[in-house]
Amino acid sequence: MRAIGCSAFADPPVLRLGDLPIPSPGPGEVRLRVHAAGVNFADTLMVRGKYQAKPEFPFVPGMEMAGEIDGLGAGVTGFAIGTRVLATAEHGAFAEFAIARAADTVAIPDAMDYATAATFPIVYGTAHGGLLWRARLQAGETLLVLGAAGGVGLAAVEVGKAMGAVVYAGTSDDARGRMAMAHGADTAINYATEDLRSVARTLTHDKGIDVVFDPVGGPAFDAALRAVAWEGRIVVVGFAAGAVPQIPANLLLVKNAAALGFFWGSYRRHDPARVQASLATLIGWWQQGLLKPHVDARFKLADAATALAHLTDRKGTGKAVIEIA
Length: 325
Fold this sequence. Notes:
By secondary structure, this protein is an alpha/beta fold. The protein has helices at 41-46, 114-118, 121-134, 151-162, 174-182, 196-203, 218-227, 249-255, 264-270, 272-287, 304-312; strands at 2-6, 15-19, 29-39, 64-72, 84-88, 97-101, 105-107, 142-146, 166-171, 187-190, 209-214, 228-236, 258-261, 295-300, 319-323. The protein is globular.
């Protein structure tokens, strides 16, 4: 099979298209004939050796994919050869065939194309889990999403609206703000040119923001933390800006506020049934038209390195996908 191989951690990454043996599914696993693979910020970290997990070399990058089931491992039930599915994995998606646990695999509706399905589970799963499981977002509360035009940010805007929140989109330029508003945000805040704290307090009549969803980190986190309401919650999802914030505990104390970490991938290991239920809810919302995934850029398998650079350079909005077959 054709696959993208990574044989050393490097920055920029060295990725090569080559031929590898088609893998065989083990017990509890399925094999996919991959039609499309989502591109995630975590992929850019993994090939540089900066991710939590460091696979043995050589490995195939890629954590989410969509295609049809091509093989079933021992003990797998509920799937048949040819079933159209999306799936997540530790790595391996940038290839013509890939292995996923059956527990990480979900059938998709006939109306959902492979590119949409391949870019769906991680960003929408992260948005839904972070807002529901960690922040306990309630209908009518205010939600500030930082990096609101990026992949997970745009998903959080849509999920927040589906959950009944008033959504403020924090972005680094006006065009990205317009993109977020086109996906349901009530108001956009350009935190590159506006004082995030003062604008947020004006919008909430000095109450402050109930929930902040932050995949960005850096100075935007610091400003957002100071804009949270009494008993507000800020969900830390990632550090796309590169800087990991240091949280002043006194700000949490005086507001009875909470800073909550959220790593969606850990739930795949610790509570896969909860992930399955979340994805079922999200696919239902997609069928109702509440979620409208935005695929910003499409790449061929041979251009995987370019696809990852597209993310690290923060050029796009929404998601990027590698189309394989």
